[in-house]
Design a protein that fits this description.
This protein is mainly alpha-helical and 109 residues long. Helices cover 64% and strands 0% of the residues. The longest helix has 16 residues.
Length: 109
């Protein structure tokens, strides 16, 4: 069950990034078939390599395993930027999010 999730999630994130299995394998410093072997179920990445894959996509391991996040790399960039803002700017951003989520079922604060 988890093995299939890992394979599918890597494929999903790779396709969103627009890179081939070969390019991703090369970028991670592996042979050309490395990601193919993972995607096809022949192997799974060890934990340290899974961390490298998360870095490759610009996401945390937590975001990797949360497949409800459509664009985790964009969310991570947003969070990195929000961490640099002061309280007043954060409140402005929250007001803007509230306005954008006008039809949301709950308040983001």
């Amino acid at each position: 069950m988890y093995e299939e999730f890992v394979r599918d999630r890597i494929t999903q994130l790779r396709l969103k990034k627009g890179v081939s299995e070969y390019k991703m394998s090369y970028d991670l410093g592996h042979s050309r078939g490395y990601i193919y072997n993972i995607s096809s179920g022949k192997s799974l990445p060890p934990l340290t390599e899974l961390f490298a894959i998360c870095d490759y996509f610009g996401i945390t391991p937590s975001e990797f395993f949360d497949d409800n996040i459509a664009r985790p790399e964009l969310l991570q960039k947003a969070l990195d930027g929000l961490k640099k803002l002061d309280e007043n700017d954060l409140k402005l951003i929250l007001d803007f999010i509230d306005r954008l989520c006008n039809n949301c079922s709950h308040d983001v604060r």
